[in-house]
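Late entry, written up from scratch paper. The run itself happened at the end of the previous shift, but nothing got recorded in the book at the time, so transcribing now.
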Amino acid sequence: MLAVGTAVGAAAPAFAAIGPGDVNGKHPRDVGCRADQQVIYHTIIRDGSGNARGYVDLMYSVHCHAAWAHVHGVKPVANQTYVPQGYVARSDGKHSPTCYTPEGGQDCYTTMLWDKDPLKARARGIIDPNGATNTVYAAWTPWY
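Output as recorded:
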């Protein structure tokens, strides 16, 4: 006779239950929210002449009801120039900490914010061309 450890037809849920405390301030990869991530909005970051310097994505997980930002620069950070940075802001005034791209990188990802109706979120992307002045190129995604 063979003993079976699980009941037939009793499948484990694909995801555990998620609430605000499970996602706020956490990275999507650490709590499984990247499994169903979507790019909700993709916005180009342009300089004063209209040249693309990078982009910002508003990322979202339906299962986790969470939003986060991904910011990408068109060239790697060198000597703290062209540093992509960003954050995600919520309609109630809360926002994630700012992410910064390390030397040699081109991307940064923020931590998540709970974003379930009636709350809305949008992402801010910034490219700092020289790391030392107030000249920055920035863009917002629309609200979602």
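The first strand starts at residue 37 and ends at 46.
(Scratch paper discarded after transcription.)
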